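Handoff note, outgoing to incoming analyst
You'll be picking up this chain. Sequence as last confirmed:
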Amino acid sequence: MRILTALALSTALTLPLAAFADTAGTITVTGSATINVVPDMATVSLGVTTTGDTAGAAMATNNEAVSAVIARLIAAKVADRDMQTSSLSVNPNWVTNAAGTGQEVKGYIASNQLTVQVRSLEATGSILDAAITDGANTLNGLTFGLQDQRPVEDEARKKAVADALARAKLYAEAAGEKLGPIVSISEGGGYVPPVPMMTKMAGDAAVPVAAGEVGVSAAVTIIWQLVP
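Most recent structure output, in case you need it:
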């Protein structure tokens, strides 16, 4: 009976040690890298907002203005596939009444917003100028990007792995160990906000545009086994 008890106690004591051995002797390091490149496309969010006594009148005026804007964009060699309606609305125009006691409807407001992709940065300024001249009266944003970001992403991934490896070797050496086989690899990453670079101008039209740079980042977490 004492032998069985001792055996059970011995087994209970060795189980935590075995579990600990399974997780010991590893190092986890996260490496990262960012590559900044000059963008080769721009995305413009613009639109037309009009008013009218009735919802139909406001929308009719809006349709006419938006058609003129689209025609000018096509003339500027913006492809149909690069223009998309992102928002379309018509709403009552609520104003405070003369007595100041409440609100009343005074006409209607129609809005049509377009998202336009410009694949030639040199044309960005002239396209903005043309759109505004021909009726676009709202400009909601301008962002820059890459038409094909995969090659830059892959380069950032390679640099992130190299960064993780360099860190892991440093830590292992400081601990008197060496890197063994890789246990696992996981990744993450994405765009970094544009970095201003005022020397890169997209065209010399009435609307000057600084393209700057866009950064593509990658992060990778690698777990290695450690060996003496």
